C-alpha cells in the first residue's frame, strides 16, 4: 500500500480498536503495529499523529500512545438563541461559491467549478518547488509587504511591457484580491457596477462587505459601453467590475475598440475599472491585451491570479495598480491579511520561472481545447443547443428551453450524477432567461464530459 492510503487505513483500524478500549488503555507498540498491518514506521507515526490531532489518543514519550479521556456528553444541547439577536438581519450567502469549490461525491461527474482537474495540474513541479522553498534559510521569515521582488517582476512582465514591479502587489489569490480591492476603493453602501450576468463570487463578496451590485448587461462582445455610461449617470458609481477576456459565464472576449470605449466611459465618470483577468492563460486564440496596458491614468486595477492555471491551493495573485490607489490597496492588504505565506510565494516564483512552465501552459491549452470541443459537440447532440463557442476558457453558457427552472434542473442533474451550475445566481438582478453554465476543465476526460451532458439531457423537460 502507498503511504497515504495505508496511513488512512491504519488510522481507521485503530479508531475501531479504540472504541472498544477504556480511557488510559495503552495501544500496541509501534513495532507491533508495523508487524500486524505490514506498514512502515513513517505510516505508524502518521496514523498516531492523526488520531492525536482528533483527540482520540495521547502520546507519552518513551511510554507509547494511550486512549484519551472521552468528553462527557452534555445533558442539554447548547442554547445559541442569543446569537440571532446579536447578529441581526445581515447574512452572508455563500451557497453558490460553496457549490463551485466543494468536491463532488464518488460517481458524480463534475461539469461545474473553475479549477483544473487533478490530471491537468502541475502537481509534481509544485511539490518540487515547494520542497525547495521550504528548505531555504529564510523560508519562514516575513516577505516584503508587497510580495517577493522576483514575483512582482514576473507579474509585471507577464501583463504588459510598460508595467513595473512597483505597480504589483502579491496577494492571496483572486478572491482575496477582489475583497482587498473593493474594500480599498469603495465604502460600505456604495454602488458597484457589474456585468450581467457575472461571476457569482463577486456578487456574494460585494453584498457581504455592504456594496450594492448594479447590473450592466453584456452582449456577444462583453460589457455594453452605452449602458455602462447610463449606469454611471444614474447611480453615481465610482467603480465597475468586469472580465474583458473570456467573460465568466458567457465566454465573451471584448474587442479592442470596445475596450477603448469602456475606458473612455470610466474616464468620463471619474471611475475605476476593476479588471479580473482570471482566464488569460486559457486563451486558445489571439485576444487583445489587458485593459491595464492601455491605461495611462491609473484608472484600471488589474487582478491576475495563478490559481486556476495551477491548483486550487496555490492562492497567489498579482494586483496591478498605479497612483495613490496602489498604496491604499497595499495598506488594505497589510491591515487585513498581512501577506501571502513566503514559502508559497517562493514556490510559485520557482514554478513560473522554470522551463517547464511554458510546456505546462501549452499542455493545458491543448487539453482544454479538446475538452471544450467535446462538450460543445455533446451539447449539440444531446441538448440540441448551440451555445457560443468560446475562444478558450473553462465554461460554456448554455441556454435552456423557455420556462425551464434552471435551479430545479441543476438539482435534478445532481441526483442523476452530474453537477452543473444553474444560471440564475450569475445575475445580480432578474435573469433574462434560463441557463446552465457547463464547465469542461474539472472533468476527468472527454468521454466523461460526453457522459455528463447525456445525464443532463435526461433530466431536461
UniProtKB/TrEMBL annotation:
One Pfam entry name: GntR
UniProtKB keywords? Aminotransferase, DNA-binding, Pyridoxal phosphate, Transcription, Transcription regulation, Transferase
Q: What InterPro entries does the record point to? A: Aminotransferase_I/II_large, HTH_trans_reg/aminotransferase, PyrdxlP-dep_Trfase, PyrdxlP-dep_Trfase_major, PyrdxlP-dep_Trfase_small, Tscrpt_reg_HTH_GntR, WH-like_DNA-bd_sf, WH_DNA-bd_sf
Instruction: Give the domain of life.
Output: Bacteria
* Entry-linked SUPFAM superfamilies: PLP-dependent transferases, Winged helix' DNA-binding domain
One of the record's GO molecular function terms: DNA-binding transcription factor activity
| Record-annotated HTH gntR-type domain positions | 4-70
Q: Write out the similarity annotation.
A: In the C-terminal section; belongs to the class-I pyridoxal-phosphate-dependent aminotransferase family.
Give the protein name, as stated in the record.
Aminotransferase class I/II-fold pyridoxal phosphate-dependent enzyme
Amino acid at each position: 500500500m502507498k503511504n497515504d492510503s495505508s496511513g488512512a487505513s491504519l488510522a481507521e483500524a485503530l479508531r475501531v480498536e479504540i472504541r472498544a478500549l477504556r480511557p488510559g488503555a495503552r495501544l500496541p507498540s509501534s513495532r507491533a503495529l508495523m508487524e500486524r498491518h505490514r506498514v512502515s514506521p513513517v505510516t505508524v507515526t502518521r496514523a498516531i499523529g492523526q488520531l492525536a490531532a482528533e483527540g482520540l489518543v495521547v502520546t507519552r514519550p518513551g511510554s507509547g500512545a494511550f486512549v484519551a479521556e472521552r468528553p462527557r456528553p452534555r445533558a442539554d444541547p447548547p442554547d445559541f438563541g442569543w446569537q440571532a439577536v446579536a447578529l441581526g438581519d445581515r447574512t452572508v450567502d455563500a451557497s453558490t461559491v460553496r457549490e463551485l469549490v466543494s468536491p463532488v461525491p464518488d460517481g458524480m461527474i463534475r461539469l461545474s467549478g473553475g479549477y483544473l482537474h487533478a490530471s491537468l495540474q502541475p502537481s509534481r513541479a509544485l511539490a518540487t518547488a515547494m520542497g525547495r522553498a521550504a528548505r531555504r534559510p529564510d523560508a519562514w521569515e516575513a516577505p516584503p509587504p508587497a510580495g517577493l521582488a522576483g514575483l512582482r517582476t514576473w507579474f509585471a512582465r507577464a501583463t504588459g511591457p510598460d508595467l513595473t514591479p512597483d505597480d504589483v502587489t502579491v496577494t492571496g489569490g483572486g478572491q482575496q484580491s477582489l475583497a482587498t480591492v473593493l474594500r480599498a476603493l469603495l465604502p460600505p453602501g456604495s454602488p458597484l457596477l457589474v456585468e450581467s450576468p457575472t461571476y457569482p463570487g463577486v456578487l456574494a463578496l460585494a453584498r457581504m462587505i455592504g456594496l450594492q451590485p448594479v447590473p450592466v448587461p453584456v452582449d456577444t462582445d462583453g460589457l455594453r459601453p452605452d449602458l455602462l455610461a447610463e449606469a454611471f449617470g444614474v447611480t453615481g458609481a465610482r467603480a465597475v467590475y468586469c472580465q474583458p477576456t473570456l467573460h465568466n459565464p458567457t465566454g465573451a472576449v471584448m474587442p479592442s475598440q470596445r475596450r477603448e470605449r469602456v475606458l473612455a466611459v470610466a474616464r468620463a465618470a471619474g471611475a475605476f475599472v476593476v479588471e479580473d483577468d482570471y482566464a488569460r492563460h486559457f486563451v486558445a486564440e489571439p485576444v487583445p491585451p489587458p485593459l491595464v496596458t492601455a491605461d495611462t491614468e491609473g484608472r484600471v486595477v488589474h487582478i491576475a491570479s495563478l490559481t486556476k492555471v495551477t491548483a486550487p491551493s496555490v492562492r497567489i495573485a498579482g494586483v496591478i495598480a498605479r497612483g495613490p490607489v496602489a498604496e491604499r490597496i497595499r495598506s488594505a492588504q497589510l491591515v487585513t491579511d498581512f501577506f501571502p505565506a513566503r514559502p508559497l510565494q517562493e514556490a510559485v516564483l520557482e514554478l513560473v520561472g522554470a522551463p517547464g512552465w511554458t510546456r505546462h501552459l501549452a499542455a493545458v491549452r491543448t487539453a482544454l481545447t479538446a475538452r471544450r470541443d467535446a462538450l460543445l459537440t455533446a451539447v449539440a447532440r444531446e441538448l440540441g443547443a448551440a451555445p457560443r463557442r468560446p475562444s478558450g476558457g473553462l465554461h460554456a453558457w448554455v441556454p435552456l428551453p423557455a420556462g425551464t427552472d434552471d435551479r430545479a434542473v441543476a438539482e435534478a442533474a445532481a441526483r442523476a450524477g452530474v453537477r452543473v451550475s444553474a444560471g440564475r445566481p450569475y445575475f445580480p438582478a432578474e435573469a433574462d432567461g434560463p441557463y446552465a453554465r457547463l464547465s469542461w476543465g474539472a472533468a476527468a476526460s472527454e468521454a466523461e464530459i460526453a457522459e455528463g451532458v447525456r445525464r443532463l439531457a435526461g433530466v431536461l423537460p
